[in-house]
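Saturday, quiet lab. Running sequence design on the structure tokens for the scaffold JK sent over.
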């Protein structure tokens, strides 16, 4: 049954009942016996009708109430579901918050630990810094003391130097260091360099042997006739090169002999020790570069002086031959070319052309593995020599520049 017919049937029922109650009340009024019955019956019928109405309306209200209650229950159920969902979200948020809070606490603890470590490291650093500061102070103090000592020593050294300076001209005069810029002294650094050269040349010498050779050269010059036209250091260097010659009977050619002091020294250092040592000596013996007499000794430059110096040192005549002439003379070149040499020493004509000629014509007489020495490299008075050597070193040839000691350039033939 639909709602319309339901309501209609209920209204109809109530109307029927009302009509029936009225009919009963009328029936009691008209048909009842006595007034009381009529009134009571009619009132009773109306009362029953009224009660029925009340009950019926109450019932209707109850129905409505039930419906409302059901709606309220629905609303409540919905609300409760929503609240439960919200609550779940709140719980979830709470859990996350708790996690974040835990992490934050952990981070805080870590920060606390790190801070503690940093503090301890900082205090250790501070201690170390204080130690270093103390050490530095101590060292600065020591340095100050040393500076004071050095200043004191330096003042004393200054005084000694002043004294030495006043002695220096006499010492230099005694050593002959002022003669033509060819020092007779052997400086400490030169001595050390010569020892290094000796090692490089394959000689196993002690440093005092270098000093001995220098002393011997000075003695040969002083006790001989004439002079050595080189510094003592250069003279010792030439001797070291001659001592290093590998041939069993080493042959030496010297162009420009002057007084033969170099030849006498080589005899003494090599000839006396190595059997078969031989020297070929080329010089015109016509004075010293245009002057009849040597400008230092005042002596004439003669073949006899050289022979005297060699003989004085005990060199037998068969250990040397003198070619009295210029290196440019054909007969001299021819005579010199009769043999090959372990060492050719160019110290004659100091012009560019002169050195070029000598190296060009006598260089080829050097044996393979032999050496070529050229004097006066870098000497202010002989620019032609320096120019030639610089070009010779830069150009292509069989001769390798081994090095230059002082004024002597050394080349080795490949
Ligand atoms: C610097 S001295 C030689 C010094 C000698 N070597 C020494 O160590 O004591 C130069 C000599 O070369 C000689 N001379 C100059 N031109 C020459 C040449 N073309 N050939 C050979 N000797 C020459 C000079 O007569 C002089 O005696």
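Result came back. Writing it out in full:
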């Amino acid at each position: 049954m639909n709602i319309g017919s339901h309501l209609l049937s209920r209204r109809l029922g109530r109307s029927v009942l009302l009509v029936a109650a009225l009919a009963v009340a009328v029936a009691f009024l008209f048909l009842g016996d006595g007034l009381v019955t009529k009134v009571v019956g009619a009132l009773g019928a109306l009362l029953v009708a009224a009660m029925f109405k009340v009950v019926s309306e109450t019932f209707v209200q109850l129905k409505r109430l039930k419906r409302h209650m059901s709606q309220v229950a629905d609303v409540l159920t919905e609300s409760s579901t929503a609240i439960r969902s919200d609550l779940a979200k709140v719980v979830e948020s709470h859990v996350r918050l708790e996690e974040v809070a835990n992490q934050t606490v952990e981070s805080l603890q870590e920060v606390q630990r790190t801070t503690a470590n940093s503090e301890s490291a900082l205090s250790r650093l501070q201690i170390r810094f204080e130690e270093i500061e103390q050490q530095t102070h101590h060292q600065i103090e020591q340095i100050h003391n040393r500076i004071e000592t050095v200043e004191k020593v330096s003042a004393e050294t200054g005084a000694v130097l002043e004294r030495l300076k006043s002695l220096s001209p006499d010492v230099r005069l005694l050593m002959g260091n002022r003669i033509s810029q060819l020092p007779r002294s052997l400086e400490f650094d030169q001595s050390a360099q010569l020892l290094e050269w000796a090692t490089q040349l394959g000689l196993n010498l002690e440093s005092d042997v270098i000093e001995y050779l220098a002393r011997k050269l000075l003695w040969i010059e002083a006790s001989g006739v004439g002079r050595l036209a080189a510094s003592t250091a250069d003279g010792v260097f030439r001797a070291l090169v001659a001592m290093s010659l590998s041939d069993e009977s080493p042959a030496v050619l010297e162009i420009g002999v002057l007084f033969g002091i170099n030849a006498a020294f080589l005899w003494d250092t090599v000839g006396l020790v190595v059997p078969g040592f031989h020297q070929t000596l080329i010089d015109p013996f016509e004075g010293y570069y245009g002057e009849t007499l040597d400008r230092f000794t005042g002596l004439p430059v003669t073949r006899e002086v050289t022979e005297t110096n060699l003989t004085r040192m005990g060199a037998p005549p068969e250990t040397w031959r003198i070619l009295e002439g210029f290196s440019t003379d054909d007969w001299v070149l021819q005579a010199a070319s009769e043999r090959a040499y372990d060492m050719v020493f160019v110290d004659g004509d100091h012009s560019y052309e002169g050195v070029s000629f000598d190296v060009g014509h006598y260089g080829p007489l050097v044996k393979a593995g032999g050496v070529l020495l050229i004097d006066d490299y870098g000497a202010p008075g002989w620019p032609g020599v320096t120019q030639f050597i610089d070009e010779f070193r830069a150009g292509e040839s069989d001769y390798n520049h081994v090095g230059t000691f002082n004024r002597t350039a050394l080349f080795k033939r490949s």
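Notes for JK: The chain has two domains: 1-175, 188-413. Residues 34-175 form the longest helix (142 residues). Ask whether to fix the surface positions before the next round.
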